[in-house]
Amino acid sequence: MPQYMTIGHLLRQLQDLDPTLPIRLAVNPDWPFTHYLAAEVVVRDGKAFIADDGQEGYLPPSVSDALVWS
Prior knowledge:
20% of the residues lie in helices and 40% in strands. By secondary structure, the chain is of the alpha+beta class. It has a three-stranded antiparallel sheet, with no helix packed on it. The longest helix is centred in the N-terminal third of the chain and has 8 residues, at 7-14. The chain is globular. The relative contact order is 0.19.
């Protein structure tokens, strides 16, 4: 996995997933919470941005383990 993800890397990881599967952002191993992603993608200065759209709750321990955060 590259340090800086590109649209191509992200598309390859998502292409075989169920398109109705909800997606969350795992944030900060010291305060492991899940966050919603905003629906809009903004492209500026040669980069794509997806905003955080609020906190959902605690990150499940199984996800922390998979991310090697614990």
